[in-house]
């Protein structure tokens, strides 16, 4: 419901003519800028940790984050912000990446935490969370999509470049939703640690996927999916 026409009160009419001044009011709500969304999967982390605070990045994971940060910096873009999951592995990945992007503000959010977005179709045998987890995590991850993935605000004059550091399930679900693909297919996508996924949102609301899970900037022996 971010289509400009949906933001206008159609009941409000011109007092003199009695006609709706739709055309002139539409311009006030139309987006002018393009949003570039860079979705970064966290680096490799310690799978043996029981609690989130123990699931810290491995030495290889820290190397991966350095490579990702260097790659983002090499693009020569003026990044507006880094929004990251509040989970330890995403926070640590963000801290390393941000060293390569000095001055870019960092924002932590619980919305981007890892979870089970929606029951996958086709189902898989190796991953079957409790049904309640889909209800709990799914609503939150859908809220993250609606909150962060949308056309630019009408007041935004210049194109923006934003980084989101989070998790494979979250990124895969967001990509399916953004491209208007059946979200149940999210588990068919695969993402490496430290990978870059680039979404472009045009002023008219149309979305393009520039890259999905790019790790071509990493040496082959540094690439993992754990």
From TrEMBL:
Which GO biological process annotations does it have? positive regulation of mitochondrial fission; programmed cell death
Keyword Ribosomal protein part of the UniProt annotation: no
Catalytic reactions on record: O-phospho-L-threonyl-[protein] + H2O = L-threonyl-[protein] + phosphate; O-phospho-L-seryl-[protein] + H2O = L-seryl-[protein] + phosphate
Report the SUPFAM superfamilies cross-referenced here: Phosphoglycerate mutase-like
Key words, A-Z: Hydrolase, Membrane, Mitochondrion, Mitochondrion outer membrane, Necrosis
Which GO terms of the cellular component aspect does the record hold? Answer: mitochondrial outer membrane
Which EC number(s) does UniProt give? 3.1.3.16
Annotated family = Belongs to the phosphoglycerate mutase family. BPG-dependent PGAM subfamily.
Q: What is this protein called?
A: Serine/threonine-protein phosphatase PGAM5, mitochondrial
């Amino acid at each position: 419901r971010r289509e400009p026409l949906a933001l206008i009160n159609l009941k409000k009419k011109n007092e003199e003519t009695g006609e709706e001044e739709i055309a002139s009011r539409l311009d006030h709500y139309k987006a002018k800028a393009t949003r570039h969304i860079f979705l970064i999967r966290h680096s490799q982390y310690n799978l043996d940790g029981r609690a989130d605070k123990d699931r810290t990045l491995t030495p290889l994971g820290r190397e991966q984050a350095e490579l990702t940060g260097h790659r983002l910096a090499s693009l020569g873009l003026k990044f507006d912000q880094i929004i990251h999951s509040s989970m330890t592995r995403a926070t640590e990945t963000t801290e390393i990446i941000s060293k390569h992007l000095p001055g870019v503000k960092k924002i932590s959010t619980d919305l981007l935490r890892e979870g089970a977005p929606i029951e996958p179709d086709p189902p898989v045998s190796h991953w079957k969370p409790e049904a309640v987890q889909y209800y709990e995590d799914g609503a939150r991850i859908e809220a993250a999509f609606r909150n962060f993935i949308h056309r630019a605000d009408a007041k935004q004059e210049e194109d923006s470049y934003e980084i989101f550091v989070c998790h494979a399930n979250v990124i895969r679900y967001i990509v399916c939703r953004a491209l208007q693909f059946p979200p149940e297919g999210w588990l068919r996508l695969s993402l490496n640690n430290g990978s870059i996924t680039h979404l472009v949102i045009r002023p008219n609301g149309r979305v393009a996927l520039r890259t999905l899970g790019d790790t071509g900037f990493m040496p082959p022996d540094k690439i993992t999916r754990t």
